[in-house]
């Protein structure tokens, strides 16, 4: 399922992730993952969207993901998100991507709202 990925070098792209296969998620975030859900994300997306992040990003010494850290609320509690992230939509007990059309629309919105982001062509 198509969804968005934001890297530590501020690139945003549409990637294909099989959310039913944990290995596909691990490949997308380059490691073991955990889910992050915040009020900021709910307010932004107006939907039950989560970020899937590298759970060992800080331990590995990965770079800060600026946009993911904003969604996480770094200015409130000082903790950052390290590493690449992908987004998923929670529907019941399932996590799915945004799909083709919605991924394009969300990417365009995020490019406008977060000037630090640059569009990257998907290569996954």
From TrEMBL:
InterPro entries: DUF3846. Residues 1-87 form the DUF3846 domain. Pfam families: DUF3846. This is DUF3846 domain-containing protein.
